[in-house]
């Protein structure tokens, strides 16, 4: 073959259409294997439906069907009760790559790229040669629009082959996609069912019905009528915004003065803040944004870095929340009865490159979870479960960076995915998830995001550890108690019978040995009912008076069955001012929960006050912040959290010193 | 905020320009951290330069400079002696995403997407606000063209801000890019230097000069004047082609008959093969491709699956080759002196979705390689080192699927990345590498590719194991020999001196004990010279005659220094018909190598013939295929290879039964 010259090359240099590009690189869109292609097709459809319903404030009802068509061809139907799509936009939404409504909005949504569903249409026709059928009806219209369309990959435009009106049962509004794709149907870990299950967990407001190729129907019922709050569209946050992006915004601004531009086109920039920034940057307030020089733009960005600006609004984000995280974990674990659920961590929103994001972490440990396997990682991005590319996800990276040996997990060299009986759930919510590819499988390794996840993981792990520690202590107390309560009398009885003497009263003896107040709690579960019983033994030589405090879940608590009546109930905080307990005697406090699953009852923490805590076993001294309201306590806690983190990080850094990072290598310059 | 309706959503539904999309998702292009952005920028430039030079049959001279500009801003210069770019194409090549010459060509090249270098220009202006400067000169032109350009992201077009002619020293042709990007410069594992080093290893025909931000210059010298063969552009191979793609080709065909279309537009389809396919599909030879129905197209594809079609031409691919793989590994290992280099495996080309691909694997083991860390994995795609996203690469997946415990590495549960003193190099060459994203970091998990890599890994590992086995045996022989040769005489001497008698001759005694022919080889290295000495001891009671055969590297062999003169030298196969060795006597064979590094001398394998091999220690019986020429032997070997693989796989499958795949889950239907 001839060797190329600049001229012969010039002839070959030409535009590549976006359609051709993705057709040739369908793996980038998540169509790299038959199994995965089927999952991707369902995922893109369902994510779209959920976004549309939520935007329109509609509780989603989604029907998904996967049916055998030909050999490896499947028919996929996804039908929702969303707002519908107006007729002229149907071909664009389904038949053009890079077309959509969410790309330009700064708020959390599942789809952002305007690629997903049209990619499904494209892959469908590439793999089966068949067109896609759309039905959509809006509230204002009497009938639905029906279209049969294909995607012209060279032009990246839809071709509507046939269209018609259609009476659509009694559906008020909604959209139905019917697409044929080549695929392979599997059950198990990375499957449609698994994706839908994960989706149902973090979208409890959705009703999802799934009919699999064998005709079996699985229903994920709505468990709340409450929609997640509609995420509010915000303006870009100035922190971390890119120079080029800033200059483009300035050039395109309708404002004539920098002060107005800064105040109006960014989040959290008040006139005062704008003035401070401009002053700091030595840029005039009256300077026109359109003629701003690169040097001035650079100065403004530098000033933004220095000036204190409020964190972004949180209402552009929609975190999963503590309850659902716990529920999600419980659901996944099914019969494995883990011993401990660490209280989930939800961090405050932070910003990367001007995009707000927020991290949530949940963790469970023990029970029948497998001990000799890598921990299970559950990844979510904007309430969508991520099933593929775990290895290249920032979540995995962050997990691999924590030294889990400190938290009781096995980890070779203190790096990498730990082994042990644990499940770790991480949710990244953001107005723009930085996915590593259009397939939206994995989140790119952005340093600030990684750092936040790491922090959340450490905090959650620390909570788990504290929890494990307390629990171990409790078990030990229990053991001692059993010896005193059961073994000693047993021995006394036996000895008495041998020597033929009456069984001695042991109260006094035990008192002499122990000299403690012993708080012993016990939970029994039977028929949907948890019975909690707390015995307070006075093993001292004099009568004792004390206050008992419990921090306990309110869900399922039968307030009428608390005996004796508490002196105070304040949310989850309950206080009993107990009457004096005579020496060697015991008094009991008990209460009941109903309607909870066996492993659903949260922790009950016991504290005592108005007694020397040194002589109490089985309850902690009441902490100083007990009286504060929840919010004040939380802020106290947040403070501790940051300090604790700093300590943790310092300790780990010391150990890691001199070590090359897993994915980053030694830095020569460190002035980011 | 208001709830959306179909109508309000319709207003927001709009086109997203490719430029805007990638600006908002720059992480997809490899610009997700400061460190990585700098590497990506250099990588895209250098890959482009190498492709251009090779296409034009020019030995590449590439100059790379990274210099500090502002705080975290860097100036990057990449200059080559390629064919240059004609003036009108300069703005397109550097200022438009999805524009290039290699996307539509079916042959191995580094760049294929038409995105890389324009993405660098885009990221440069996004992060620093600065334009890019291009100089290019073609052979036909007297002077070079100089341009200063930016990328208009909304329109995805270049804007030429300034242009001029420029006298360019005495450069005959070439291109120089000067771009400013925000970044962070690091040394170490994932760095520019590391990328260039890897590039130099697998592109030994390139001269690469690198000036780092501290002004230090590193030169990677050209070690061969030979260009890799220019890869030939081929037509698509019919195996595995997608239905939609096939239909598109048929519709766009200039041919009027299926027979002509099939024969002319596909690789390896002769008229005979085309006829067989069409007959099988029950499609008329005269059928017009343009009016082919989906059903007929489907039938043709089905027939293609059944009909035997030659494997794709290999000249569209350019594998690294055995020598360079060894060299590459050696280079990386530097001082770690691994004990064993497994002979690299180069598999025959295979096809995925109509794209030919080829796998190469190399492996080293032992020495001072760290024993308690995961093995080091070196990944290459079309002669480009891959530095990021190791976790989501098909290469990593394939490595994780092999049970390395069989090959002497530590691996928990027989899955995952093994631990131990080994380095594994894998090269995937293809006319289209299925990258997981536009950043070209990792190869998607395509089943056929994964399978081929797995097979290559197993073969290479098996070779390593055989090698280790032989070596252990040799060491044991050596030990025994040392006892006989040194210890026994030592004892004899000592005993003799104690009892005051003369030292007995031990030859006879040893002969009585042993009754063997002992072949003992020894390699000494001194001053660039390897001296190989082989002693053949006759520890039997009668004189023995035998032929000694050595399979030994020819590189560096000084044929004049072979003593005694061999009876035959046939490539790497050397035979000595030795004269009779009297009982208890020894004869010696020796030869020399010069000019090799200490660890550069390959294995020498010794065989014997015309003697009962059962009485020989230290050499194997001559294999039956010794007389065959290299090719015949190779085909024999290939046969064994496939059989061996089948055995290996069967054995592993048995063990794995009931186990869920790492990344695939249980299959319900298995009819792909």
What is the count of helical runs of chain A?
15
CATH architecture of the largest domain in chain A: 2-Layer Sandwich
The structural domain count of chain A equals: 4
Q: What portion of residues of chain A is helical?
A: 25-40%
Strand order of the largest sheet of chain A: 7-6-5-8-3-2-9-10
Q: Identify the overall geometry of chain A.
A: globular
In the CATH hierarchy, the third-tier topology of the largest domain in chain A is known as Heat Shock Protein 90
Work out the oligomeric state of the chains in this entry: homodimer
- Approximately what portion of the residues of chain A adopt beta-strand conformation? 15-25%
Number of DSSP E strands of chain A = 25
Name the CATH homologous superfamily of the largest domain in chain A: Histidine kinase-like ATPase, C-terminal domain
Decide which structural class fits the backbone of chain A: alpha+beta
Distance between the termini of chain A: 49 Å
Mean pLDDT, all residues of chain A: 85
What does the radius of gyration of chain A come to?
31 Å
Largest sheet of chain A: 8 strands, mixed
Walk me through what this model shows.
2 copies of one chain form a homodimer. Chain A is of the alpha+beta class and 672 residues long. Chain A folds into 4 domains: 18-220, Heat Shock Protein 90 (2-Layer Sandwich); 243-306, Helicase, Ruva Protein, domain 3 (Orthogonal Bundle); 322-467, Ribosomal Protein S5, domain 2, CATH 3.30.230; 505-621, Mu homology domain, subdomain B (Immunoglobulin-like, Sandwich), CATH 2.60.40.1170. Helices cover 32% and strands 23% of the residues of chain A. The first copy, chain A, contains 15 helices and 25 strands. Chain A has helices spanning 6-12, 18-24, 34-55, 90-95, 116-128, 192-202, 243-252, 258-265, 271-281, 294-306, 322-333, 394-401, 447-499, 507-514, 630-656; strands at residues 14-15, 61-68, 73-80, 99-100, 132-137, 144-152, 157-166, 174-182, 207-211, 217-220, 340-346, 350-352, 355-365, 376-381, 384-386, 422-430, 516-526, 529-539, 547-551, 568-570, 573-577, 586-594, 605-609, 616-617, 620-621. Chain A has an 8-stranded mixed sheet with strand order 7-6-5-8-3-2-9-10. In chain A, helix 8 (258-265) packs across helix 9 (271-281) and helix 9 (271-281) crosses helix 10 (294-306). Chain A is globular. Mean pLDDT of chain A is 85; it is low at 633-639 and 654-672. At the A-B interface, helix 1, strand 1, helix 2, helix 3 and strand 4 of A face helix 1, strand 1, helix 2, helix 3 and strand 4 of B.
């Amino acid at each position: 073959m001839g060797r190329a010259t600049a001229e012969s090359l010039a002839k070959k240099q030409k535009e590549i259409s976006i359609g051709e590009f993705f057709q040739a690189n369908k793996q980038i869109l998540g169509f790299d294997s038959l199994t995965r292609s089927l999952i991707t097709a369902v995922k893109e459809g369902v994510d779209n439906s959920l976004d549309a319903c939520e935007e329109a404030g509609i509780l989603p009802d989604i029907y998904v069907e996967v049916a055998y068509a030909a050999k490896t061809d499947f028919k996929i139907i996804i039908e929702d009760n969303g707002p519908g799509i107006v007729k002229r936009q149907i071909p664009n939404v389904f038949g053009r790559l890079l077309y959509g409504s969410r790309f330009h909005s700064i708020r959390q949504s599942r789809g952002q790229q305007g690629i997903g569903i049209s990619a499904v249409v494209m892959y469908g026709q590439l793999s089966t040669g068949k067109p896609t059928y759309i039905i959509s009806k809006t509230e204002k219209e009497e009938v639905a629009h029906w279209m049969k369309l294909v995607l012209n990959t060279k032009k990246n435009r839809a071709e509507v082959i046939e269209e018609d009106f259609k009476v659509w049962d009694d559906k008020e509004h909604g959209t139905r996609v019917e697409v044929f794709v080549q695929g392979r149907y599997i059950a198990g870990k990375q499957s449609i069912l698994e994706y839908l299950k994960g989706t149902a967990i973090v979208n409890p407001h959705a009703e999802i019905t799934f009919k699999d190729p064998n005709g079996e129907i699985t229903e994920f019922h709505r468990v709340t009528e409450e929609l997640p709050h509609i995420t509010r569209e915000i303006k870009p946050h100035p922190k971390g915004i890119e120079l080029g992006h800033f200059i483009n915004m300035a050039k395109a601004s309708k404002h004539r003065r920098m002060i107005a531009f800064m105040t109006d086109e960014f989040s959290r920039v008040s006139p005062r803040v704008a003035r401070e920034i401009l002053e700091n940057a030595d840029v005039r307030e009256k300077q026109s944004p359109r003629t701003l020089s690169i040097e001035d733009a650079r100065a403004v960005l530098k000033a933004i870095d220095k000036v204190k600006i409020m964190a972004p609004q949180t209402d552009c984000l929609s975190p999963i929340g503590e309850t659902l995280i716990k529920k999600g974990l419980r659901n996944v674990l099914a019969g494995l009865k883990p011993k401990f659920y660490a209280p989930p961590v939800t961090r405050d929103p932070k910003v990367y490159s001007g995009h707000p994001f927020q991290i949530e972490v949940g963790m469970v440990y023990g029970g029948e979870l497998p001990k000799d396997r890598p921990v299970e990682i559950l990844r979510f991005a904007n309430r969508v479960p991520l099933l593929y590319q775990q290895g290249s996800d920032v979540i995995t990276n962050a997990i691999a960076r924590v030294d889990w040996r400190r938290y009781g997990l096995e980890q070779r060299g203190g790096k990498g995915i730990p082994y042990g009986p644990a499940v770790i759930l991480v949710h990244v919510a953001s107005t723009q998830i930085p996915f590593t590819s259009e397939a939206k499988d994995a989140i790119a390794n952005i340093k600030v995001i990684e750092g936040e996840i790491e922090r959340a993981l450490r905090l959650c792990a620390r909570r788990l550890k504290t929890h494990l520690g307390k629990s171990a202590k409790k078990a030990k107390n229990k053991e001692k108690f059993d010896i005193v309560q059961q073994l000693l009398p047993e021995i006394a009885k036996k000895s008495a019978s041998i020597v033929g003497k009456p069984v001695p009263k042991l109260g006094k003896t035990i008192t002499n040995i122990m000299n403690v107040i012993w708080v012993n709690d016990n939970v029994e579960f039977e028929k949907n009912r948890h019975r909690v019983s707390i015995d307070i033994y006075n093993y001292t030589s004099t009568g004792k008076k004390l206050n008992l405090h419990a921090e306990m879940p309110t869900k399922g608590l039968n307030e009428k069955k608390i005996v004796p009546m508490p002196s105070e109930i304040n949310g989850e905080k309950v206080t009993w001012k107990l009457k004096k307990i005579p020496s060697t005697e015991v008094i009991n406090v008990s209460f009941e929960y109903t309607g909870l699953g066996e492993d659903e009852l949260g922790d009950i923490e016991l504290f005592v006050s108005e007694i020397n805590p040194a002589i109490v076993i089985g309850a902690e001294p009441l902490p100083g912040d007990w009286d504060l309201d929840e919010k004040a306590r939380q802020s106290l806690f947040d403070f501790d959290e940051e300090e604790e983190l700093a300590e943790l990080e310092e300790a780990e850094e010391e150990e890691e010193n001199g070590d090359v990072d897993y994915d980053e290598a030694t830095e020569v310059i460190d002035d980011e």
